[in-house]
Design brief:
CATH topology: TIM Barrel
Number of helices: 13
CATH class: Alpha Beta
Bound molecules: NADP nicotinamide-adenine-dinucleotide phosphate
């Protein structure tokens, strides 16, 4: 399915094309949205809107996100979809059921493929860097999985510039497949860490960038201007504590004059801004219903001029 409103971008220097906006399942599918009919309608709406990239992880709802998203995606043509999953976070109490060892990665990919109901993953992410495993061990099994056809590309998530460089050096030395994509947190609220570290390194190596939490878990929609009564920040204490403060709420309020001038919502402005930053391949959305997804995809029509970019950066300063 292709939708004339959707645009597509290369994932870094490789041939794979990703929809500018994609959809992920963290805390929503199998979590805040448990009913399969709702999950199916959100995912199918995404596909019908031109989204081709669906981001999952083994750990999301302890395998349920893979099961439920896989169940809905199975009804769509597999060759049109880009499906990712991830490995690193513990899946049980067992000492080997975590991290990036050869053993855990091989067993995890098999379980992810089974839960999703697919023969291969388009992208397999190392969900963090594993300080307890030599990076060469991790890269070699990723390379093996590509040779065996279980995964097509491998990527990193929240790796630092130094860790990415170490991985590239090992790949150069041994001739292994390189990580083609990094998945960092990135939004107007979360700029500093990424812009000063992984972004320049990823660009140097031609890696694609697919970014998470573009709305800072909903804060950038403006729905918490008057306080928190419902939504993700009401449900998740850790996110509320790290994101919800006077400075962030005031900054989100200041966006309104810019979004009003552009005749879009703050949500759409925040999403369009991420998509307009250097090196972005796809901005991974989260949505708990079809209406949210529809609003979010309206970001495709928002033009971030250099002036708008500068105005937003002046509100959401790095310090
Ligand atoms: N690699 C990693 O470590 C990592 C970490 C986190 C996420 N991710 C990926 O990135 C994806 C997106 O992250 P995210 O879900 O945090 O994105 P987000 O866009 O920052 O937050 C999405 C949440 O905001 C609220 N929301 C979204 N659109 C809205 C709208 N139009 N109006 C009002 N509320 C709206 C919804 O929550 P409520 O309705 O519940 O308020 C929704 O679930 C994840 O699904 C996952 O695939 C990766």
């Amino acid at each position: 399915m292709s939708n004339q409103n959707m645009s597509f971008r290369s994932m870094g220097r490789c041939g794979l094309k990703l929809s500018t906006f994609s959809l992920g399942g963290w805390t929503t599918f199998g979590g805040s949205v448990k009913d399969f009919t709702s999950i199916r309608s959100i995912l199918h709406h995404a596909y019908e809107s031109g989204i081709n990239f669906f981001d999952i992880a083994d750990v999301y709802a302890k395998g349920d996100a893979e099961r439920m998203m896989g169940g809905a995606l199975k009804e769509l043509p597999r060759h049109e979809l880009v499906i990712s999953s991830k490995v690193f976070w513990p899946m049980s109490e067992n000492i080997n059921d975590k991290g990036l060892s050869r053993k855990h990665i091989l067993e995890s990919v098999n379980r992810s493929l089974q839960r999703i109901g697919t023969e291969y993953l388009d992208i397999y992410f190392c969900h963090r860097f594993d300080e307890d495993t030599p990076v060469e061990e991790t890269i070699r099994i990723m390379d093996d999985l590509i040779h065996h056809g279980k995964i097509l590309y491998w990527g990193t998530s929240e790796w630092t510039a130094e860790q990415i460089q170490e991985a590239m050096d090992v790949c150069d030395k041994r001739g292994y497949y390189k990580p083609q994509v990094e998945q960092p947190q990135y939004s107007l609220i979360a700029r500093q860490k990424f812009e000063s570290n992984a972004q320049p390194k990823a660009l140097e190596h031609g890696m694609g960038l697919v970014t998470w939490s573009p709305l800072a878990s909903g804060l950038l929609t403006g729905k918490y201007d008057g306080g928190i009564t419902e939504g993700r920040l009401a449900r998740m204490d850790n996110l509320r504590e790290s994101l919800y403060n006077e400075q962030n709420v005031n900054r989100v309020k200041q966006m309104k004059k810019i979004s009003d001038a552009l005749e879009c919502s703050r949500t759409q402005l925040a999403l369009a801004w991420v998509a307009a930053q250097p090196g972005m391949s796809s901005v991974i959305l989260g949505a708990t219903n079809v209406e949210q997804l529809q609003e979010n995809l309206g970001a495709l029509k928002v033009n971030i001029t250099p002036q708008v970019d500068q105005d937003l950066k002046e509100i959401f300063t790095l310090s």
